[in-house]
Design brief:
148 residues, mainly alpha, Arc Repressor Mutant, subunit A, 79% helix, flat
Length: 148
């Protein structure tokens, strides 16, 4: 199950990376007309970029309040800002900043026109992965505690 979760998270992060790369490639083509940046990126920057994007996603979701926002989103197709404020206890500005952090790493999406937020597939799988690790940690603790 963990391998499937990590594959789904990786697919979501790769989608976010693709979006970022397309924007920069388009700017590069507009500025230089050559599109050389994309080839250089794949050869020289891809490995470091994927590592940093992965670490940023993990760091973002590792924040307890960000995780609470993501977990709240995981229980619904879409939540309005008012609903999210009630569930998380965050005010509008702080909640917006937390959502922006989650959006930047590809774990959530904002629907500005309806004032709603949604979790992405990567976000769903990240929540499941963290919950699975937490559950297994508790099980392992109980197993060892009873043995000692």
């Amino acid at each position: 199950m963990t391998e499937d979760l990590t594959q789904q998270i990786a697919a979501g992060l790769a989608g976010r990376l693709r979006s970022l790369v397309l924007v920069i490639d388009r700017l590069d083509r507009l500025e230089s007309g050559g599109g050389d940046w994309l080839a250089r990126f794949a050869e020289g920057e891809l490995a470091e970029t994927t590592l940093v994007l992965t670490l940023r996603a993990l760091a973002t979701v590792a924040d307890r309040d960000n995780f609470r926002v993501l977990a709240a989103l995981a229980g619904s197709d879409s939540l309005g800002m008012g609903e999210l404020m009630a569930v998380t206890g965050n005010g509008r500005l702080l909640l917006s900043e937390r959502l922006n952090d989650l959006v930047q790493v590809g774990l959530a999406a904002r629907l500005i026109d309806t004032d709603h937020a949604q979790i992405t597939a990567a976000g769903v799988n990240m929540v499941q992965l963290i919950e699975e690790i937490s559950r297994k940690t508790a099980e392992e603790f109980e197993r060892r505690r009873l043995r000692d």
